[in-house]
Amino acid sequence: MNDLFRPVIRQKILDMQAAPLPVLTPRDVWLPAVPGKALAVIGMRRAGKTSFLWQQLAQRHAQGTAREGLLYFSFEDERLAGLQGGDLDVLVEEFYRLHPDWRDQRRCTFFLDEIQVVPGWELFARRLLDTENVELFLSGSSAKLLSREVATSMRGRALEAVVAPFSLREALRHVGQEPQQSPDRLPKAGQSQLDAALERYLAEGGFPEAQGLDARSRTELLRSYVDVVLLRDVLERHNLSQPQVLRWLVQQLLGNAAGGFSINKFHADLRSRGVPVAKETLHQMLAHLEDAFLLHSVALATDSIRRQQVNPRKVYPVDTGLMALFDKSGKPNSGHALETTVLHALLRLGAQVGYVLTPGGFEVDFHAALPDGEQWLVQVCLDIGDTATLQREVRALQDAQALWPGVRCLLVAQFMPPLVDLPPGIELHRASHWLLGTANE
């Protein structure tokens, strides 16, 4: 079987290494720096994983690695149908036949995209790391290359790098409007443009392909993304037999973005409508949707497993652009969109995130435990111009401080009066500034 694929593989290598490098928007993706590990580039469909692989290739080329030492190879090619894990040696053989001076002498980098279509790829990847002087990137459809699968299949030989839709900074960079100075140094006109860009981002989201589209085209595009995730990454992959229940679940979750969700209540509602579904099935569906990166759920921040289980989870879409697809009110919910955006900013920092219910009955949007051990309480509010609103948000943070003494307390707001009187220990951040990173430096 090897000889059947050899000419195609050789030609693909030649064509790739002769192709001009694409000009793409640089992404701010954190890469773990652990020698000897493969990097699995994961994330929701259409978030930009393939583009990110090309950017990593271009970066290494700019740093001095010759093109012959850099291999991008996509296995999503009908000419490779039937390729098995045992045939993958042909890729290595043909690469080093073309570039014999590289074998064992210099370190090259392989970017293997859509590798999950080849049965038995895991054994090949592990052996490649063990026997060749290669830096290895793996990526593919989230239906078959999820983080938990990579960890299992590669037996500890792979770490993950998550590619999400554009952040606010990346979206601005994409259209050539990324501020080149600290946002708090912008003139009035620049600040107004930044605030307008944030409002647009909250409504339209950050999927790269959706940038700049009119509302109808963007809606149809994003709807197609969701449909593919539900069909291929959840229903087909996990062999589920109740597609309508899954759609109802997604409608409930994304139609109430940033709201609380209880499997028990949803299950009771379905039963009242005569829909027979097991509660365990609903738990599995929610887990599958998170695995496919369509949404992220946040549990109560507590050391008590029982309290986490009996309290609702708060659910957020992977991208604010999806909210309009499921919100039947027809009105933009900028407050929940801002909360969703802040959550994803915290996740990009590597934070473990929960929400807080205080002894006084207040709720704080997020408790974030950062990798360096620092802890934040983060309250998100669209507009604190109203005195009563400001007092409520501050009181919630103060009440939560009793649970985490000494924690850093942040109030992130999009609209605020020129002067705000806050008690000691409460930091106020303009949302556009905080999202661009000035609060995290």
Automatic annotation (TrEMBL):
Residues 232-381 form the DUF4143 domain. One of its GO terms (molecular function) is ATP binding. Coiled coil: none annotated. Pfam families: AAA_14 (PF13173), DUF4143 (PF13635). Keywords: ATP-binding, Nucleotide-binding. The keyword tRNA processing does not apply. Residues 37-171 form the AAA domain. This is ATP-binding protein.
